[in-house]
Write a structure and sequence with these properties.
Elements: H1 2-15, H2 18-55, H3 59-88, H4 92-118, H5 127-140, H6 163-177, H7 185-197, H8 207-213, H9 227-230, H10 235-238, H11 242-253, H12 260-277, H13 282-292, H14 300-306, H15 317-326, H16 330-339, H17 344-359, H18 363-370, H19 375-382
């Protein structure tokens, strides 16, 4: 109805000046009012006649009276339509608002259906962790050789897991070994990261983290590198509220990345995954992240043309979350995040961790990713 009124409105404005348009608006209102009034009067009269004849057992005449009422019902409908057109005519803001409300309602219904479909609280769900692993493996080939297109295979022989996968699984291992008691999570994370990480010392660690990894008494080194966010995906699996997400995120992050931006990047990623786990829509996730962490006002084409290699949280996490938000499905998220360039494996690990939780991951992709892992890492992921 609103779209039809808008067409009439546009036509009237195109053919008449303001005075003429107001006359047409008035004509619609008068015609609508008269038609509606006559229709109501005729219908009421026919209905009363029908009731009188019906109770006097003059059934044939009563049905005739009821049939006579049909044209008056049509007049009521026509009068209502004319009145509605007259009321809305020349009210551009009202028309646009009605169309917006209609669109928002449809979008809300779609979001509701998606929320119900995607709501996950299954304790065995490792979608976010697996998503990070897949993003890392698929992006590994393009970390120092960016590909500014989505036209590439997800996996090939040049792909491999990197430090992103190793540290993601080390944090996951620490959280599992806490058995629900997270008072000593920071120390447990240090132990697991050093134990697992030292076995793969040439998988791409930054120099600062490499030194931390092999120290006997490791201390945080005020880092705001994106490694804080790429390893955080397991936190949302064990948290029961956003408050707990923040607490756990801080404990597994501050042992190395105790800079404000490092803590922020990890927390924003963990919160986005948690919201996806709880079945929130993309609009709700975007709103929460923008209200509490980052501006996500990017343009995909601009990122493809101008985004550069950036190892910081503030230069990776917002872009990664944006790539998830504009993705169509999990595979599209992998390709979207890698196609903008930058620190491809880490950006994809962050983006795909959220996407994995939001969309879910097929068994085929899961098995393909697992085939790139060594037995120890596979055991941490699957057992």
């Amino acid at each position: 109805m609103e779209s039809y009124i808008k067409k009439i409105n546009d036509s009237v404005r195109a053919k008449h000046d303001e005075k003429g348009a107001q006359k047409i608006k008035k004509s619609y209102l008068i015609a609508g009012g008269l038609t509606l009034g006559l229709g109501l009067a005729g219908f009421v009269s026919s209905f009363i006649t029908f009731m009188v004849l019906f109770f006097e057992y003059e059934t044939d005449r009563a049905m005739t009276a009821w049939l006579v009422a049909i044209p008056f019902i049509l007049m009521i409908v026509a009068g209502s339509v004319l009145t509605r057109i007259g009321d809305m005519l020349l009210r551009d803001e009202a028309i646009e608002q009605r169309e917006k409300e209609k669109h928002d309602f449809k979008q809300a219904m779609q979001d509701y259906k998606l929320d119900k479909k995607k709501s996950k609280d299954d304790e065995g769900d490792i979608s976010a962790i697996l998503g990070a692993v897949i993003g890392d493996i698929c992006g590994s080939k393009y970390e120092f050789n960016n590909i500014k297109t989505k036209d590439f295979p997800l996996f090939d022989d040049d792909c491999c897991f990197t430090d992103d996968t190793v540290m993601t699984l080390a944090v996951y291992k620490a959280l599992k070994e806490c058995n629900g008691d997270y008072q000593e999570l920071s120390q447990k994370t240090i132990e697991c990261m050093q134990d697992v990480g030292r076995k793969y010392e040439f998988c791409g660690y930054g120099s600062g983290f490499y030194n931390w990894l092999f120290r006997k008494d490791p201390k945080p080194y005020n880092s705001y590198g994106n490694g804080a966010a790429m390893r955080i995906s397991a936190v949302s699996k064990f948290a029961n509220s956003i408050v707990e997400v923040r607490e756990l995120s801080k404990k597994v992050t501050e042992i190395t990345h105790n800079h404000e931006e490092g803590l922020k990047g990890a927390e924003a990623t963990a919160v986005a995954i948690y919201l996806a786990r709880k079945g929130k829509s993309k609009r709700e996730i975007k709103k929460y992240i923008e209200n509490n962490y980052y501006n996500l006002n990017f343009n995909y084409e601009d990122l493809v043309s101008s985004y550069q290699y950036d190892m910081t949280c503030q230069g990776t996490v917002p872009q990664a979350i944006y790539c998830f938000l504009i993705s169509k499905d999990f595979e599209d998220c992998v390709k979207t995040s890698i196609s903008i360039g930058g620190d491809s494996d880490t950006l994809a690990a962050i983006s795909c961790a959220i996407a994995g939780q939001y969309y879910g991951i097929s068994e085929e992709l899961k098995q393909k990713a697992v085939s790139f892992l060594v037995p120890q890492l596979e055991d941490i992921l699957l057992n």
